[in-house]
Amino acid sequence: MPNSLIVERAGSVLQLTLNRPERRNALDIATYYALADQLRQATEDPGLSAIILSGTGEHFTAGNDLHDFQADRPEGDSAGMTFLRALIATDVPVIAAVEGYAIGIGVTLLQHCDFVYVARNATLRIPFVALGLCPEGASSLLLPRLAGARKAAQWLLQGKAFSADEAQDAGLATAVTDPGDALAMAKQVAAVLAEQPRQALRLTKNMLKRADREAIAETLEFEATQFRARLKTQEAQDAFARFLNKR
Fold first, then answer.
1. Number of Cβ within a 10 Å radius of residue 24
2. Are strands 13-18 and 5-10 parallel, antiparallel or unpaired?
3. Residue 243's pLDDT band (boundaries 50, 70, 90)?
4. DSSP annotation string for 216-230
5. Could you give the dihedral angle defined by the CA atoms of residues 203, 209, 214 and 220, in that order, rounded to the nearest 10 degrees?
6. What is the mean pLDDT of residues 10-18?
7. What gap in Å lies between CA 117 and CA 172, rounded to an integer?
8. Which of 75, 82, 195, 200 sits at 20 to 30 Å (Cα–Cα) from 162?
9. Are 39 and 87 in contact (CB under 8 A)?
10. Which residues contact 76 (CB under 8 A, 6 or more apart)?
11. What is the sign of the dihedral through the CA atoms of 72, 76, 82 and 88?
């Protein structure tokens, strides 16, 4: 287990904490694979009732580590795609606790969580177009459904940053909390889920996802193909270089 992911279990609740505070919890290859492994194990564990995703320090995650986008990638699923597949596939309810920044895949993954609690001072943004890229994780399907076509266009085409209140109004967030309280709220909800009959709980989550499964899978593949192609473009590589040179 890399140091970038803290794994804690309390009864039937698993907490996965991103732990790269010096990089605002940006997700690198090792962290993606560790998350995917934990999610797969959780899915196979009949004793689990909930998974909490959170970030250490002041932020949830600043998104993908852009240094990884500059490296050559082998064919097949990327580390990020491996993580997304595991997140989408799990029948264990997933609760996200968002503080500070949730950028890029930090927003994408929220669409696949069952409960999302966002601190009032959080900043969310999906800057893929600004980086010469395109949506991922079935966002082009799910975000218009959640937030509506106009809001999805603002967030995806303009890369417009948005607040916790806006996320809740659009249906992306379950509730807004006071700063510093998102994890406490997630734990409260996890405790409620832990009291439910586990087989019925997990079956019901599967049933809630069943109708959209085929469309999500098709969109996931289409976006992944386009995303891989965009990474190789000069437009995207120039955007990465500009961003990294600003830091």
1. 19
2. antiparallel
3. confident
4. HHHHHHHHHHHHHHH
5. -120
6. 98
7. 10
8. 82
9. yes
10. none
11. positive
